[in-house]
Known about the structure:
Number of helices: 3
Largest sheet: 2 strands, antiparallel
Distance between the termini: 44 Å
Helix content: over 70%
Amino acid sequence: MWGILISIVMAIIIGFIGDAIVGNNMPGGILGSMIAGFVGAWIGASLFGNFGPQLGGFAVIPAILGTAIFVFLLGLLSRIFRRTT
């Protein structure tokens, strides 16, 4: 039970940090940040491996980098779709 709660809190924090690095306004508030944190952690672990400190099942540094990449790509896609409509 505590493991799931810690993972959710870490995903939210990592989502907020990734959004702050990129400078986009992540849609969805806390839920959007949580989803971005989980997806970013997966992307970061796939691209960079599991190095650095680990908290709540997340390798923190790759998760932040993966979240920044994910939020950047979401911002890029939203700008492209905004122009075409």
